Amino acid sequence: MPKTVGDVMTRDPITVNPDTPLTDVIRTLAERRISGLPVVDADGKLVGVISETDLMWRESGVTPPAYIMLLDSVIYLENPARYERDLHKALGETVGEVMTRNPTTITPNQSLQEAARLMHEGGVHRLPVLDSTRHVVGILTRGDIVRAMASEQST
After folding, report:
1. What is the pTM of this model?
2. Could you tell me the domains of the chain?
3. Ramachandran angles phi, psi of 104, nearest 5°
4. pLDDT of 61-104, one tens digit each?
């Protein structure tokens, strides 16, 4: 019988809220050796995820968009709104300012095969696992799937 997300997910994961200072998140990720956390609102419903990628903006900085000048006009070669968003992430102090909103999610009864496909196609490293009320009940990582594959080979 194929395994489901609920069979291998980490239950009751550490969560943070949008007001959590980034210094707390950085410490938690480093101490727990994890790469991301679900972000929940006051009711415990998922509003985003915060990951190492989101935090990299603080150290890497932001490059202004390329532009050309033509007859005293600035023509951006990239979307300047992206620069503003990236700058906001680089200067953010709380989770809500830098988190990724509307992350890809999954439910406990979905198959591991479907989870692996979502992760691969979406380029994500973790999937918050939600119940029918959008409350976080677990988190599934690529490592969880690999460990499940290894345990199937040893049986």
Report:
1. 0.76
2. 5-153 (3.10.580.10)
3. -70, 135
4. 545 555 566 666 666 566 656 655 554 555 568 899 888 999 99
